Amino acid sequence: MGGATVYMFPGQGSQSVGMRGGLGAMTTEQKELFSSADAILGFPLSALIDAGPGEELTRTSNTQPALLVMGTAFAAALDARGHRADIVMGHSLGEYTALVHAGVIDFKDAVRIVRKRGELMEQAVKDTPGTMAAVIGVERARLESVVQVCVGSGVIEIANFNSSTQMVISGQAAAVDAAARMINDGGIGRAVALNVSAPFHTSLMKPVAEEFSRFLSEFEFRPPRVEFIDNVTGRGEKDPANIRDKLVLQLYSPVQWEKSVLTAADAGAGTFIESGPGTVLSGLVKRIVKDRNIISGEKLLKGG
């Protein structure tokens, strides 16, 4: 199929112990990405990815750099096989990997940024447990009604608009659990807990936004060398200052994934390649656009 090629980078929830196996035989360049991240972080992230324990890998301050390195390594492998991204976008944390591939931020800077992002997110909810759940088969208006019913149990918000019938709720554990029970027990749809350790993309993250903004100001942001679609608006963004500002907003704003996919499709995207572990994004894109070539990077690399 012709048209532009999109590299899409997954976010938290796609991690698993042993996920480097999806890369196949690693090149020197890929090995250097992992060793560089290990050195920057001051601990063997590579060993955590390979052997766990899973609870430590799922800690957001570890998951975020782990998935950043994985996505960057996948993109390097795809490039080596002759693929080229005309458009990049990432889901939540994956947005940082997309920015690395677009040349907006350096890889080493991105490792430091997402480690700090994860630490701040942990700090924001250390006294109030938070969680997230995917909601399948429920339209937006109905889900908004469920959320309104459950706000009495705590903070709960819609955090991801992934497709017309797949969204994510996020917030304090009691409220999210109440909503999930209401959805599952009431036959409204299906709610599934996500493998994450904090309530991302909600107002619970606002207290750390100012500190994160100051931290981001220490790093250089450059214009993207390919089309970049941001999470906050689901539209293309070229201005480095705006990109930096939107990364702060992204902490406590919902991910507009469906809009992002439609923007890419309208821009002429014919092929969507998931550059990272798993097939979550490939599955979501199939729900949104039916006439495109949608490929899992893992399957592509394994298939030669």
What this model shows, in words?
By secondary structure, the protein is of the alpha/beta class. It has 2 domains: 4-124 and 204-302, Malonyl-Coenzyme A Acyl Carrier Protein, domain 2 (3-Layer(aba) Sandwich), CATH 3.40.366.10; 130-197, Alpha-Beta Plaits (2-Layer Sandwich). It is built from 13 helices and 9 strands. The protein has helices at 28-41, 45-51, 54-58, 60-80, 94-101, 107-124, 140-150, 173-185, 209-216, 240-252, 257-266, 280-288, 297-302, and strands spanning 4-9, 87-90, 130-136, 156-163, 166-172, 190-193, 227-228, 269-274, 293-296. Strand 4 and strand 5 form a beta hairpin. It is globular.
Write down the CATH class of the largest domain: Alpha Beta
Strand content: 15-25%
Query: Unreliable runs, pLDDT <50, ≥5 residues?
Result: none
Provide mean pLDDT, rounded.
Answer: 96
Spatial order of strands in the largest sheet: 7-2-1-8-9
Overall shape: it is: globular
Domain count: the total is 2
* DSSP helix fraction: 40-55%
* Computed Rg: 18 Å
Helical stretch tally: 13
Order of H and E elements:
EHHHHEHHEHEEHEHEHHEHEH
Question: Largest sheet, if any?
Answer: 5 strands, parallel
Task: State the CATH superfamily name of the largest domain.
Answer: Malonyl-Coenzyme A Acyl Carrier Protein, domain 2
What would you say the CATH architecture of the largest domain is?
Answer: 3-Layer(aba) Sandwich
Number of beta strands: 9
Structural class: alpha/beta
End-to-end separation: 19 Å
Tell me the CATH topology of the largest domain. Answer: Malonyl-Coenzyme A Acyl Carrier Protein, domain 2
